[in-house]
Fold:
Amino acid sequence: MMTFPEHELHFFQKFGLTGRLIERCLGEALSAGGDFADLYFESIASTSISVDESLVKSASQGVSAGCGIRVCSGDRTGYAYTDDLSAERLMRAARTAALIASGPSKQSVAGFRETPKSSLYPISAADTDAGVAPKLELVMRADRAARAYDPRIVQVRAGYNDELRHILIAASDGTFAHDTQPLARLNCYVIAKDGSKNSRGGSGGGGRVDLSFFEGDKSPEHFAREASRQAILQLNAVPAPAGDMEVVLGPGWPGVLLHEAVGHGLEADFNRKKTSAFAGLIGRQVASSKVTVVDNGTMPSRRGSLNVDDEGSPTQETVLIENGILKGYLSDKLSARLMGMADTGNGRRESYQHIPMPRMTNTYMLSGEDAPEDIVRSVKKGLYAVNFGGGQVDITSGKFVFSASEAYLIEDGKITAPVRDATLIGNGPEALKYVSMVGNDLALDEGIGTCGKDGQSVPVGVGMPTIKLDRMTVGGTGR
Amino acid sequence: MSTATPISATQTNMQQLATDVVERALRAGATEAEVVIREGDEFSTLVRLGQVETLKESGARGIGLRVFLGPSGAHRTANTSTSDFSPAGLDHLISGAIDLAKVTSEDPFAGLPEPGAMGQLAGDLDLYYEDVYGLPVAQRIEYARRAEAAALSADPRIQQEKSDGGSFDAATGHKVMANSRGFVGEYRRSYCSLSAMPIAQTEQGGMQRDYWYSSARTLARLDTPESIGTEAARRTLRRLNARRVPTQSVPIVFAPEIARSIIGNIFEAANGDSIYRGASFWANQLGQQVASPNVTVVDDGTMQGLFGTSPFDGEGLPTRRTVIVENGILKNYLLNTYTARKLNMQSTGNASRGLAGTPGIGAGNLFLQNGSLSPQHLLADVKAGFYVTELMGFGVNMVTGDYSRGAAGLWIENGELTFAVEEVTIAGNLKEMLNNVTAIADDLVFRGAVASPTLRIDGMTIAGE
Structure:
């Protein structure tokens, strides 16, 4: 086996883990005949601070640590975890997970190879111990900027959250990887009031970054003004239209369309089980020829990026749709093995208490050739949507929704009145066939996305250039 | 049989630990302190196409501390939490909280509840049964296998080569709370659930899935695996051949399991945290007519054996029954200590607290009271309408009340359920929707902490073709 640089590794230093113990646990995990086992050690330190009514009403810090042990036997998975990293408890968890298999031990632990490591986020950036004073200053600045924006802004809440996650993964197939992953996020939510009219606005951003990220153009003032602008705009919004129409989606966060319409449906586990509306469609036209969609876990500092995934595999850029043709799925180790395809490094999990599965990282559509102004100008009557709340998809029927929080009517090629919140609905394998124009202005979101699947939340990114869909259903109340 | 668990050595140790940490926080400089310890075990298994696919079994615990510094009426506050119960871990928990609180602002409304307000319900609330772990693993797997098998054998259109399976889950939780105003309490709760998720497909190709489940605090109250599988199949099959309908305005009938989400919206509207911020359209509306006169919504954390029941809330106040809306009149908000002080009211015992963070607002058992019609009679009055069995997305704005969500269900024609509908939205404004509840059925059943009978709302817009 390889020599562990034990003195350098967090779990060896802080928790007394040893190479010998890792081998013993993997051996125990495979003792009932499993054909694969891995250990996932995780320790997280998090800080949260918020300002509300211009008071720092509270601040929180938390630490947690644990290890999840997985054993696979064919397509069966046994899983156990412990928040006590003593040898006794680790061995007990390994024994519990082992029971998914039944038979004599047949697999030995191979020599470890360390996964080649990129450095998408400087570890020096990850100073959660920097003290709370500078973090507090960020939220106070957001509060002041929002209140200064307009006297109709009557309530402001701003919050800063960060975490530093250390992980170490060792698997019976020889995988050995470790990473230190920072994650930070600043949010601002406001309420505007004008006579009897009320509205809300929200904005935020971040990524795998340190505090200096918020000193550039992604300043607290930027997010505060953006939240306030949205709230003031919404005070005079008109009812959203209802029914099928031409829809133009702005760049950046509207890429949540891709996440819901195609991203989830292309996660390999659903396709291995043939329960996805996209099952069996590889090589088929699922979008207009102007559409190319990728998932890319290797973008520096992005919220969805990872040096290694939660199975210790390197992340990569994976083409999902190329010129409208479905090219590939997002895979983890289990699906790759069972489907005979490459592992795309998309095995992710919420924490040591969770079984990894294929998940998106940063999912976006590549730029096309159209000028955004031309796209809007081409629409006689439709909707221009630039900001969204969350979305959801039914993988099996393919139906997906995403909810616009900032949108406008387009009348005779011009953006006119802002409209009230409305949900857009479509069918995943069909919706992108209606993409008729793709802008040259690809943008990624600001870094606030969290994706939920089977009860597990992971940070993700989305992105898109301005696009035009010739048909999409808008769920308003107007005509 | 409900087990009034004897106070074991572990429990005593956890209470002792909680009060010790409170005392140590006071010695370290806190004016007031509150400690929560939670430990839990979970088991889950998924059986797919008759084979075990995942088997998970584990437990974890954590401790959370909230401290206040400075005199009452000008408290600074902070929270820390950890999974590290070692002496060094607890030292860090305490010193961390004190250091952190020093940088926060003085808030005249912050603080622990008044001593006279604290307490807990006496007697056995029927919340804990050891039998959720009583079955050997092989039999738990067998529960899940039987639920899936019943679904797969229900109809030839249920797919035999693809399925999202059957699952069995069990969990127990143990919570201990202590604070520097003398409160010490603890309780255990158990939970088990069984579900089936089949997939149906027609020759034309359209694939659909749905699910059904049963959950309970004891195995003895779970529905049989066969009844769950059969119902899951029925629900999945009725979605086949779904189509869109034209954009129009017709009565919407919400099936009970979906009407729950409207009751959830009512919870958000009455949430004291949103009320004092003006972030709810029900702010400053107490005593006003906010819903049709047939609407009475109650929150009750005291109901024996239910999912939203506990002897005390997240701040150590006894849970209680609070009428939110009575005959359409807004009677009460749901409050914790902080929001009650902000609004110059009394807490309704609705503090919710995880390990980390300040207490929020949580509901107990929240429900819309039964009407007098049977669901069949309610439907019989609808000439053309949409019976909603699924909602998608998060398109509800609690500041304005604007409501717009993806929906699927069945079309109603002359009082009968007919073809399946999908890929449409339903939209309106919650303020108006609640005043347009034109009928409520008599089929209230608690399948979770939030429950509703079938209900009909008029005046909403369907967006479709």
